[in-house]
Amino acid sequence: MGTSTAREALIIEAIGEMAAVVKRVEALVPKLQDTRQSLIDANTQLSNQLRQFEDHMHEITEHAKLVAMNHVAQHTREMTRKSVQTQVVEIHEAARKAMGAEIRPTLQELIAPLHRLAYQASQRESARERWERWLTHAMTAAVASSVTLILVSAWLWTR
Questions:
Q1: Are 34 and 22 found together in one domain?
Q2: Side-chain half-sphere CA neighbours of 112 within 13 A
Q3: pTM metric for this prediction
Q4: How distant is the alpha carbon of residue 135 from its chain centre?
Q5: Whole-number Å distance between alpha carbons of 11 and 17
Q6: Do both 85 and 53 map to the same domain?
Q7: How far, rounded to the nearest angstrom, does the alpha carbon of residue 138 sit from its chain's CA centroid?
Q8: How far apart are CA 29 and CA 26, in angstroms?
Q9: Best label site of 3, 23, 47, 64, fewest CB within 10 Å?
């Protein structure tokens, strides 16, 4: 048996080991297919969970936006109300100051000559003129009463 038989023995042994490896690999194929299917199922399940997570995060984000917008709107209304109140107070104060500082002196300047004229008119009228003026009023009242009495008497008599 020379080298050829040793070589042949090695080749036969290598073929035997190759057959054992092939049998092991063939035994692994169903396990690899099961593993592949498990990976596909895990991927599908993970994708579904990811979609659910994204939907949940979207709901949380929308809720956070709504809460933030309501918060901003509430504070904006409050700041607007305070600003309007402040402006109203400032406008009233400015109007009060304007009345006191600018309009009141002008009105006093206009009223002062009228007071002087009224006083001068009352000083010029003598006692006789005042008596005549009151007497004229009294005579007018007496004539009006007489005419009314005559008209009422005539109306009653004709009935």
A1: yes
A2: 6
A3: 0.41
A4: 73
A5: 10
A6: yes
A7: 71
A8: 5
A9: 3
